[in-house]
Amino acid sequence: MGSYQIYRSRFEGALGARIASDVEGTEYVDEDVVQGEVYYYTVMPVDRAGNKQAMGNIQARLNYAPRLRPIGDKHVKEGELLEFKVEAEDLDNDELKFDAENIETLPGDPKFIDQTFSWVPPFETTYKQPKEFTVRFIVSDGRGGRDEAARFP
Prior knowledge:
Blueprint: E1 3-9, E2 17-23, E3 40-46, E4 67-68, E5 82-85, E6 88-89, E7 97-101, E8 111-113, E9 116-119, E10 136-140, E11 146-150
Antiparallel strand pairs: 1-2, 1-3, 4-6, 5-9, 7-10, 8-9, 10-11
């Protein structure tokens, strides 16, 4: 076998538009879908000579990307604890993985453990005005779905 072509339609039984060619393997993630909409897929095997083969049984499962719950702006004074939990929802009930990027740019010893961010900003004599930092909190479902939020003045 060579590869696959994948078609998507909004109507059952229709071939629809080709959305991918030369797909190898048994998985494909369609990232151009709208949550709550229904799509129909046709997968067509193509041999190495470019001949399309008859279709077999096709099973498709939509993946809804997880969504972080709003974090909002967080403000903290130097020497005081800032702590909050990062939470998300996933319509597929997939197991979610949480991460924080740019946490190492914060002074002091910030931590992100078990979805909880905690940080005590140290006293800094070099700041003449309030300092802003950006930390990106990320949730992913391991199947291509992902959401991000960067909030940290």
